[in-house]
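We modelled the chain as a single entity of 451 amino acids. Its sequence is:
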Amino acid sequence: MNDAGSRAEVVIRPSADAWASLSDEGPGRADAPTKRKFREELGLAADRPIIMSGHQCAFWHPGILAKWMATTASAAAHGWEPAWVWVDHDDNDPLALAYPRVDDRGSPAIGTWRCGASMRGVALRSRPAVDVRGAGPQDAHPAVGGAWAERVLNLLRENRDAESLAVQTAKAVERGLGERKGSMRSFAASRLAGTSLFAEVVERMAREPERVWREYNRAVAASPRARMRALRSEGSRFELPLWRTGWGQERRGVWSDEVSEVRLTDLAPRALLMTGMLRFAGCDIFVHGLGGAAYDEAGETWLASWAGWRVSPKVVVSATLRLGLGPAGEGELGRLAERVSAAHRALHDPGMVGDASAAEVKQEALKAIARSARSSEDRRAAFRAMHAALADYRTRHGEHLRLFEQQAADARLDMAAARVALVRTWPWLMYPQCAIDDLSREIGAAWGGLG
């Protein structure tokens, strides 16, 4: 048990001892010259196996940190090259961080601390670095305090001269990792646009846009767990799985009638194409989280049917770590929900307060309603009689019912607090160091190390 209040729940699928046997070659995989060129263009090792993972440029939660830890731990155990892709063409907002706060009633709640201006819809690689000022939130929950926010500010300030917000955030995170950075070799997803493989893919898309669109949408429809949006079409023009970005401009989709006019360096692959290229030629094993593993099923299907690609194996790593803000079990939420529903039932069920006579009157009225023909006068009379009996019951037992409602009101407040306690996506810098150390040791132990 650590100061965060709970041990991490770690997911590693398949088990760590099976990873070494996953990588294979064969029909559909990139040939040796293609792999070597692609990896050299990305600045990756071309002479040994690569295990890769990645995420958006943001201050991740422990579940993402677990991917980094597992990638470096497995690489060290097997002599692989660990690599991390920073998805810098995403338009996520790394300057808005959720944190637990204390509301006016003294209960835990979720707040959002913004340490820089928003540029909604603009890819992080197209945004300037920020010179953050000010201080952290003043209403943070005592369990986390404010040191984490000061650390975020300092990490961003140290990298305020970076060429973009994406680079600033990535450098800040890696700096925050300290020794945990290990031997990880990281690169920006924007470098994909400079590879020969990406040029070939874009050229092929321009030649057969309808087939790209059709096979992509079939794959997405066949993988509902992926929750991916289908590509659109307008007459003879088709949306492609690409983004177009420009400095200070909102990123937008790319259509078949414009793709040939856009510079490759302004294009970026969407999720299925990005991980597909990396798994086809960039790595020998790819480490996904739970969500990524779900959406990439569609990517595997699409790239096999459209491009004839067979991509490298994927593995799944994730972790759930709570901050210890209170009872955090789903069972606790269930008990509180039962108290809320009991107040509603008590209004309609005299048996809830022990009034057997009133309960019997209601049951007889329900039987009369069931025996009566729909829309008949007898049915309407039975309804009126039942509601009159319930009104009388509520008048006689008003004090009991007010007690039920007060218990429900208290339960609603406790449910809000319990939901805050269940959150697993706080930035990892917010957690006690001992909790992160425990997580590292647990993941490292899967490969026989200490993390």
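As a brief sanity check on the tokenised model: The longest helix spans residues 398-422. DSSP finds 13 helices and twelve strands in the chain.
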